[in-house]
Amino acid sequence: MKITRISVHGLELPFREGSYRCRNHTEYGQTATIVRVDSDEGVTGWGEIAPLGAFYSEAFTGGVRAGLERLGPVLLGADPRETGKLARVMDAAMHGQMDVKSPLDIALWDIAAKAAGLPLAEFLGGRDGMSVALYRSVSQASPEIMLDSARRHVADGYRRLQVKVGDDPVLDAGRLQTIADDMDGSVIIFCDANGAWTSHDALRFVERTRGIDYVLEQPCRTLDENLVVRRHAAIPMVLDESADSLDALLRIHREGVADGVTIKISRFGGITRARRIRDLAVDLGLMVTVECVGGADIASAAIAHMSLSTPEAMRLHTVDFHNWTTVSNATGMPDVADGVMRAPVGPGLGVTPRDDVIGEPLFSCHAA
Question: Which domains can be identified in the chain, with CATH numbers?
Fold first, then answer.
Protein backbone atom coordinates (compact mmCIF):
# COMPACT_ATOMS: atom_id res chain seq x y z
CA MET A 1 0.00 0.00 0.00
CA LYS A 2 1.29 3.47 -0.92
CA ILE A 3 0.19 7.04 -0.29
CA THR A 4 -0.90 8.56 -3.59
CA ARG A 5 -2.46 11.88 -2.60
CA ILE A 6 -2.67 14.21 0.40
CA SER A 7 -5.32 16.94 0.48
CA VAL A 8 -5.73 19.76 3.00
CA HIS A 9 -9.13 21.34 3.69
CA GLY A 10 -10.25 24.27 5.83
CA LEU A 11 -13.44 24.68 7.83
CA GLU A 12 -14.77 27.32 10.23
CA LEU A 13 -16.28 25.98 13.46
CA PRO A 14 -18.38 28.57 15.33
CA PHE A 15 -19.04 27.81 19.00
CA ARG A 16 -22.61 26.92 19.94
CA GLU A 17 -22.52 29.16 23.00
CA GLY A 18 -21.35 32.13 20.94
CA SER A 19 -18.06 32.72 22.73
CA TYR A 20 -15.45 30.92 24.78
CA ARG A 21 -13.17 32.70 27.21
CA CYS A 22 -10.06 31.42 28.93
CA ARG A 23 -6.74 32.99 29.87
CA ASN A 24 -8.48 36.35 29.42
CA HIS A 25 -8.94 35.79 25.69
CA THR A 26 -12.32 35.42 23.98
CA GLU A 27 -12.82 33.24 20.91
CA TYR A 28 -16.03 32.84 18.93
CA GLY A 29 -15.02 29.72 17.07
CA GLN A 30 -12.15 27.70 15.71
CA THR A 31 -10.64 27.25 12.28
CA ALA A 32 -10.15 23.56 11.54
CA THR A 33 -7.60 22.10 9.19
CA ILE A 34 -8.62 18.69 7.87
CA VAL A 35 -6.22 16.31 6.14
CA ARG A 36 -7.21 13.52 3.75
CA VAL A 37 -4.68 10.82 2.84
CA ASP A 38 -5.47 8.55 -0.13
CA SER A 39 -3.76 5.25 -0.90
CA ASP A 40 -3.38 3.17 -4.04
CA GLU A 41 -5.60 0.46 -2.54
CA GLY A 42 -8.56 2.77 -2.11
CA VAL A 43 -8.23 3.12 1.67
CA THR A 44 -8.54 6.74 2.83
CA GLY A 45 -7.55 8.26 6.16
CA TRP A 46 -8.62 11.51 7.81
CA GLY A 47 -7.18 13.78 10.49
CA GLU A 48 -8.14 17.12 12.01
CA ILE A 49 -6.64 19.92 14.08
CA ALA A 50 -8.24 23.18 15.21
CA PRO A 51 -5.96 25.43 17.31
CA LEU A 52 -7.71 27.74 19.77
CA GLY A 53 -6.66 31.04 18.26
CA ALA A 54 -2.96 31.93 18.42
CA PHE A 55 -2.75 32.71 22.15
CA TYR A 56 -3.18 29.24 23.60
CA SER A 57 -0.19 27.37 22.18
CA GLU A 58 2.52 27.72 19.57
CA ALA A 59 0.10 26.44 16.93
CA PHE A 60 -2.01 28.69 14.76
CA THR A 61 -4.00 27.91 11.64
CA GLY A 62 -1.81 29.72 9.13
CA GLY A 63 1.31 28.03 10.46
CA VAL A 64 -0.29 24.57 10.39
CA ARG A 65 -1.36 24.96 6.77
CA ALA A 66 1.99 26.33 5.63
CA GLY A 67 3.71 23.41 7.31
CA LEU A 68 1.39 20.85 5.72
CA GLU A 69 2.05 22.27 2.27
CA ARG A 70 5.75 21.58 2.80
CA LEU A 71 5.52 18.33 4.77
CA GLY A 72 2.77 16.51 2.83
CA PRO A 73 4.87 15.72 -0.27
CA VAL A 74 7.49 14.02 1.94
CA LEU A 75 5.04 11.17 2.65
CA LEU A 76 3.99 10.47 -0.93
CA GLY A 77 4.81 6.92 -2.01
CA ALA A 78 5.27 5.68 1.57
CA ASP A 79 3.27 2.86 3.17
CA PRO A 80 0.71 4.63 5.40
CA ARG A 81 0.55 1.65 7.77
CA GLU A 82 4.13 2.28 8.93
CA THR A 83 3.10 4.91 11.45
CA GLY A 84 6.20 4.81 13.62
CA LYS A 85 8.55 4.97 10.67
CA LEU A 86 6.66 7.86 9.09
CA ALA A 87 6.68 9.78 12.36
CA ARG A 88 10.47 9.66 12.18
CA VAL A 89 10.39 10.64 8.49
CA MET A 90 8.33 13.72 9.37
CA ASP A 91 10.73 14.60 12.20
CA ALA A 92 13.68 14.38 9.83
CA ALA A 93 11.94 16.63 7.31
CA MET A 94 10.65 19.23 9.78
CA HIS A 95 11.99 20.08 13.22
CA GLY A 96 9.30 20.38 15.89
CA GLN A 97 5.97 21.73 14.60
CA MET A 98 4.00 18.93 16.23
CA ASP A 99 0.68 20.54 15.34
CA VAL A 100 1.54 20.27 11.65
CA LYS A 101 2.32 16.57 11.96
CA SER A 102 -0.71 15.68 14.06
CA PRO A 103 -3.51 15.55 11.43
CA LEU A 104 -1.22 13.61 9.09
CA ASP A 105 -0.38 11.10 11.80
CA ILE A 106 -4.05 10.67 12.77
CA ALA A 107 -4.94 10.03 9.12
CA LEU A 108 -2.19 7.38 8.89
CA TRP A 109 -3.58 5.58 11.94
CA ASP A 110 -7.06 5.77 10.41
CA ILE A 111 -5.77 4.00 7.29
CA ALA A 112 -3.75 1.43 9.24
CA ALA A 113 -6.73 0.46 11.41
CA LYS A 114 -9.05 0.31 8.39
CA ALA A 115 -6.55 -1.91 6.56
CA ALA A 116 -6.57 -4.24 9.58
CA GLY A 117 -10.37 -4.19 9.67
CA LEU A 118 -10.42 -2.89 13.24
CA PRO A 119 -11.81 0.16 15.03
CA LEU A 120 -8.96 2.40 16.13
CA ALA A 121 -9.53 1.65 19.85
CA GLU A 122 -9.05 -2.07 19.24
CA PHE A 123 -6.11 -1.42 16.90
CA LEU A 124 -4.45 0.64 19.65
CA GLY A 125 -4.56 -2.32 22.02
CA GLY A 126 -8.18 -2.81 23.01
CA ARG A 127 -11.28 -0.99 24.13
CA ASP A 128 -11.45 -0.89 27.94
CA GLY A 129 -15.08 -0.16 28.75
CA MET A 130 -17.65 1.26 26.38
CA SER A 131 -17.72 4.92 27.41
CA VAL A 132 -15.59 7.69 28.88
CA ALA A 133 -16.80 10.43 31.23
CA LEU A 134 -17.06 13.92 29.78
CA TYR A 135 -16.38 17.33 31.25
CA ARG A 136 -17.86 20.58 29.98
CA SER A 137 -16.10 23.92 30.29
CA VAL A 138 -17.68 26.91 32.00
CA SER A 139 -16.22 29.94 30.24
CA GLN A 140 -14.99 32.98 32.23
CA ALA A 141 -17.71 35.55 32.84
CA SER A 142 -19.61 37.04 35.76
CA PRO A 143 -20.57 34.59 38.53
CA GLU A 144 -24.22 34.75 37.43
CA ILE A 145 -23.48 33.98 33.78
CA MET A 146 -21.10 31.18 34.74
CA LEU A 147 -23.69 29.66 37.07
CA ASP A 148 -26.29 29.74 34.31
CA SER A 149 -23.85 27.99 31.97
CA ALA A 150 -23.03 25.36 34.60
CA ARG A 151 -26.70 24.66 35.20
CA ARG A 152 -27.32 24.17 31.46
CA HIS A 153 -24.45 21.70 31.17
CA VAL A 154 -25.66 19.72 34.17
CA ALA A 155 -29.21 19.71 32.76
CA ASP A 156 -27.72 18.26 29.55
CA GLY A 157 -26.28 15.36 31.55
CA TYR A 158 -22.69 16.43 32.15
CA ARG A 159 -21.51 15.51 35.65
CA ARG A 160 -18.06 17.12 35.42
CA LEU A 161 -17.48 20.86 35.05
CA GLN A 162 -14.25 22.60 34.14
CA VAL A 163 -14.54 26.09 35.60
CA LYS A 164 -12.23 28.51 33.82
CA VAL A 165 -10.19 30.57 36.26
CA GLY A 166 -6.85 32.39 35.89
CA ASP A 167 -8.21 35.90 36.36
CA ASP A 168 -7.93 37.82 39.65
CA PRO A 169 -7.80 35.04 42.27
CA VAL A 170 -10.31 36.79 44.55
CA LEU A 171 -12.84 37.16 41.72
CA ASP A 172 -12.22 33.58 40.61
CA ALA A 173 -12.77 32.30 44.14
CA GLY A 174 -16.16 34.01 44.14
CA ARG A 175 -17.03 32.48 40.76
CA LEU A 176 -16.15 29.01 42.03
CA GLN A 177 -18.05 29.51 45.29
CA THR A 178 -21.19 30.56 43.40
CA ILE A 179 -21.12 27.43 41.25
CA ALA A 180 -20.12 25.04 44.03
CA ASP A 181 -22.90 26.29 46.31
CA ASP A 182 -25.46 25.49 43.62
CA MET A 183 -24.15 22.03 42.65
CA ASP A 184 -24.75 18.83 44.57
CA GLY A 185 -22.01 16.37 45.45
CA SER A 186 -22.53 14.34 42.27
CA VAL A 187 -20.93 17.06 40.11
CA ILE A 188 -17.13 16.98 40.00
CA ILE A 189 -15.51 20.40 39.57
CA PHE A 190 -12.13 21.16 38.02
CA CYS A 191 -10.71 24.69 38.16
CA ASP A 192 -8.52 25.31 35.13
CA ALA A 193 -6.29 28.39 35.00
CA ASN A 194 -4.54 27.34 31.77
CA GLY A 195 -1.25 28.39 33.35
CA ALA A 196 -2.29 32.04 33.71
CA TRP A 197 -1.38 32.55 37.39
CA THR A 198 1.85 33.11 39.23
CA SER A 199 2.39 30.75 42.14
CA HIS A 200 1.54 33.71 44.39
CA ASP A 201 -1.90 34.17 42.83
CA ALA A 202 -2.56 30.43 42.68
CA LEU A 203 -1.91 30.10 46.42
CA ARG A 204 -4.20 33.07 47.12
CA PHE A 205 -6.95 31.25 45.17
CA VAL A 206 -6.36 27.99 47.02
CA GLU A 207 -6.45 29.75 50.39
CA ARG A 208 -9.75 31.47 49.58
CA THR A 209 -11.40 28.24 48.35
CA ARG A 210 -10.62 25.99 51.29
CA GLY A 211 -13.64 23.85 52.07
CA ILE A 212 -14.71 23.54 48.42
CA ASP A 213 -14.24 20.13 46.81
CA TYR A 214 -12.47 20.62 43.45
CA VAL A 215 -9.42 19.60 41.43
CA LEU A 216 -6.91 22.30 40.47
CA GLU A 217 -5.78 22.19 36.84
CA GLN A 218 -2.63 23.85 35.46
CA PRO A 219 -2.54 26.84 37.83
CA CYS A 220 0.82 28.16 36.58
CA ARG A 221 2.81 28.00 33.36
CA THR A 222 6.02 26.25 34.42
CA LEU A 223 6.66 23.04 36.33
CA ASP A 224 8.72 24.98 38.88
CA GLU A 225 5.82 27.32 39.66
CA ASN A 226 3.35 24.45 39.83
CA LEU A 227 5.66 22.59 42.19
CA VAL A 228 5.55 25.57 44.58
CA VAL A 229 1.75 25.41 44.58
CA ARG A 230 1.81 21.65 45.00
CA ARG A 231 4.05 21.84 48.07
CA HIS A 232 1.82 24.37 49.80
CA ALA A 233 -1.67 23.21 48.77
CA ALA A 234 -3.25 19.98 49.94
CA ILE A 235 -5.47 19.64 46.89
CA PRO A 236 -5.56 17.26 43.89
CA MET A 237 -3.80 18.71 40.87
CA VAL A 238 -3.59 17.80 37.19
CA LEU A 239 -1.34 19.37 34.58
CA ASP A 240 -2.12 20.10 30.96
CA GLU A 241 -0.02 22.74 29.20
CA SER A 242 3.21 21.83 31.01
CA ALA A 243 2.76 18.08 30.40
CA ASP A 244 4.26 18.56 26.97
CA SER A 245 7.20 16.15 26.70
CA LEU A 246 8.69 12.92 27.96
CA ASP A 247 11.09 14.85 30.19
CA ALA A 248 8.20 16.82 31.69
CA LEU A 249 6.22 13.66 32.37
CA LEU A 250 9.14 12.01 34.13
CA ARG A 251 9.71 15.09 36.27
CA ILE A 252 6.02 15.34 37.15
CA HIS A 253 6.20 11.77 38.43
CA ARG A 254 9.63 12.00 40.07
CA GLU A 255 8.88 15.17 42.03
CA GLY A 256 5.20 14.52 42.63
CA VAL A 257 4.13 17.72 40.86
CA ALA A 258 0.65 16.39 40.01
CA ASP A 259 -1.72 13.47 40.30
CA GLY A 260 -2.70 13.39 36.64
CA VAL A 261 -1.87 14.72 33.19
CA THR A 262 -3.79 15.80 30.12
CA ILE A 263 -2.30 14.44 26.91
CA LYS A 264 -3.33 16.50 23.90
CA ILE A 265 -2.88 14.49 20.72
CA SER A 266 -1.66 17.43 18.66
CA ARG A 267 0.89 18.46 21.28
CA PHE A 268 2.80 15.24 20.56
CA GLY A 269 2.46 15.25 16.78
CA GLY A 270 -0.45 12.82 16.62
CA ILE A 271 -1.38 9.41 17.94
CA THR A 272 2.04 7.77 17.52
CA ARG A 273 3.78 9.70 20.29
CA ALA A 274 0.67 10.57 22.30
CA ARG A 275 0.09 6.84 22.72
CA ARG A 276 3.63 6.29 24.03
CA ILE A 277 3.34 9.13 26.53
CA ARG A 278 -0.11 7.92 27.57
CA ASP A 279 1.13 4.39 28.21
CA LEU A 280 4.09 5.62 30.25
CA ALA A 281 1.85 7.92 32.31
CA VAL A 282 -0.40 4.96 33.09
CA ASP A 283 2.59 2.83 34.10
CA LEU A 284 3.79 5.64 36.38
CA GLY A 285 0.41 5.69 38.15
CA LEU A 286 -0.81 9.06 36.85
CA MET A 287 -4.44 9.63 35.97
CA VAL A 288 -4.80 10.35 32.26
CA THR A 289 -7.02 12.58 30.15
CA VAL A 290 -6.66 12.19 26.38
CA GLU A 291 -8.00 15.04 24.26
CA CYS A 292 -6.79 17.66 21.76
CA VAL A 293 -6.91 21.41 21.24
CA GLY A 294 -10.28 21.42 19.46
CA GLY A 295 -12.11 20.39 16.31
CA ALA A 296 -15.35 18.67 15.41
CA ASP A 297 -16.39 15.08 14.66
CA ILE A 298 -13.14 13.83 13.12
CA ALA A 299 -11.10 15.12 16.06
CA SER A 300 -13.64 13.81 18.57
CA ALA A 301 -13.48 10.34 17.00
CA ALA A 302 -9.71 10.23 17.48
CA ILE A 303 -10.09 11.46 21.06
CA ALA A 304 -12.78 8.87 21.84
CA HIS A 305 -10.76 5.95 20.48
CA MET A 306 -7.57 6.94 22.30
CA SER A 307 -9.51 7.54 25.51
CA LEU A 308 -11.22 4.17 25.39
CA SER A 309 -7.95 2.36 24.69
CA THR A 310 -6.64 3.86 27.95
CA PRO A 311 -7.10 1.57 30.98
CA GLU A 312 -10.41 2.51 32.57
CA ALA A 313 -8.98 2.60 36.09
CA MET A 314 -6.49 5.30 35.03
CA ARG A 315 -8.84 7.25 32.76
CA LEU A 316 -9.95 10.60 34.12
CA HIS A 317 -12.33 12.06 31.52
CA THR A 318 -12.32 13.74 28.11
CA VAL A 319 -14.20 16.25 25.98
CA ASP A 320 -16.79 16.06 23.15
CA PHE A 321 -15.56 18.92 20.99
CA HIS A 322 -18.01 18.09 18.20
CA ASN A 323 -20.83 19.17 20.53
CA TRP A 324 -19.17 22.54 21.18
CA THR A 325 -19.56 23.68 17.57
CA THR A 326 -22.43 24.45 15.21
CA VAL A 327 -20.81 22.58 12.30
CA SER A 328 -20.51 18.80 11.96
CA ASN A 329 -17.78 17.58 9.60
CA ALA A 330 -18.52 13.84 9.72
CA THR A 331 -21.26 11.35 10.51
CA GLY A 332 -20.96 8.32 12.75
CA MET A 333 -20.11 9.72 16.18
CA PRO A 334 -22.44 8.07 18.72
CA ASP A 335 -24.84 10.43 20.48
CA VAL A 336 -23.60 11.77 23.80
CA ALA A 337 -25.91 10.96 26.70
CA ASP A 338 -25.70 10.93 30.51
CA GLY A 339 -22.38 12.76 30.48
CA VAL A 340 -20.38 10.07 28.68
CA MET A 341 -19.00 9.59 25.18
CA ARG A 342 -18.61 6.38 23.21
CA ALA A 343 -16.36 5.69 20.22
CA PRO A 344 -17.60 4.50 16.82
CA VAL A 345 -17.39 0.76 16.21
CA GLY A 346 -16.52 0.85 12.49
CA PRO A 347 -12.99 0.36 11.15
CA GLY A 348 -10.46 3.13 11.75
CA LEU A 349 -11.92 6.31 13.18
CA GLY A 350 -15.35 4.91 12.28
CA VAL A 351 -16.73 8.21 10.99
CA THR A 352 -17.61 9.29 7.45
CA PRO A 353 -16.40 12.81 6.62
CA ARG A 354 -19.03 15.04 5.01
CA ASP A 355 -17.75 16.16 1.63
CA ASP A 356 -20.58 18.67 1.34
CA VAL A 357 -19.35 20.42 4.49
CA ILE A 358 -15.60 20.00 4.11
CA GLY A 359 -15.63 21.22 0.53
CA GLU A 360 -12.81 21.42 -1.98
CA PRO A 361 -9.20 21.21 -0.81
CA LEU A 362 -7.16 24.32 -0.14
CA PHE A 363 -4.26 22.48 -1.74
CA SER A 364 -3.17 18.93 -2.45
CA CYS A 365 -0.16 16.95 -3.59
CA HIS A 366 -0.04 13.62 -5.36
CA ALA A 367 2.44 11.01 -6.45
CA ALA A 368 3.71 11.19 -10.01
Answer: 3-117+355-366 (3.30.390.10), 123-352 (3.20.20.120)
